[in-house]
Amino acid sequence: MPRIELPVTGQVAPERADAARNRRKILDATARLIAEQGPAAVTMNAVAHAAGMGVGTVYRRFGDVSSLLFAVLDDGEQRFQQAFMTGPPPLGPGAPPAERLRAFLHTAADRIIEQGEIMAAAEKASPGARYQSGAYRTMHTHVSMLLREMKPEADPAVLAHLLLAPFAPSLFAHLTTELGVAKEQIKAGIDSLLDLGPQRTAARAVETTEA
């Protein structure tokens, strides 16, 4: 199979020193606002005031609140990407595609539960931004690659979109906050969607050993 290059989040052209300093100040100010007041408090004016710079600088650097919030999430996204692209199995290379997909979706669920409030604020600020982000494109490409190995007869690109559709912050907030669904229940549901529950996985392992 030809190698598929994934669009890694965070790969940007080198910045001038002053631009890099401004970017860091803006992201630090945004992170402080989120920690102290929550993501809803993040506006371009509030960030500019917290960073001690003109609001025009914030707009020129990030464009809108959605882009700014996604940038705050970027560091964690880069670590996630490195884990599933080059890290140890089963999330990284070396495990069967079905096990890698299961590990990937479990880890994605953990990230949404941990950072869902910021993710939800980013999506609310710019509806549809999720599907245009480098993070989503990378996830979609990775899941498509695994599905292509698992189900060569299917359309992996469409199937990947459908499989990732439930991984929206609003749904996870509804499940965990409004319905009180535990993280373990969500992961069990993911396994059921994949038909990879513990009994099924154990049965496949026995079949492989006997073969």
Set out the fold topology.
Blueprint: H1 17-37, H2 44-51, H3 55-62, H4 65-86, H5 97-125, H6 129-132, H7 134-150, H8 156-164, H9 169-178, H10 183-194, H11 198-210
Question: Can you describe this structure?
Answer:
- Helices cover 73% and strands 0% of the residues.
- The protein is built from eleven helices and no strands.
- α5 packs across α10.
- The protein starts with 16 loop residues before the first helix and ends with a helix.
- Keywords: DNA-binding.
- It comes from Microbispora hainanensis.
- Residues 20-80 form the HTH tetR-type domain.
What's the short story on this structure?
By secondary structure, the chain is an all-alpha fold. The chain contains eleven helices and no strands. This is TetR/AcrR family transcriptional regulator.
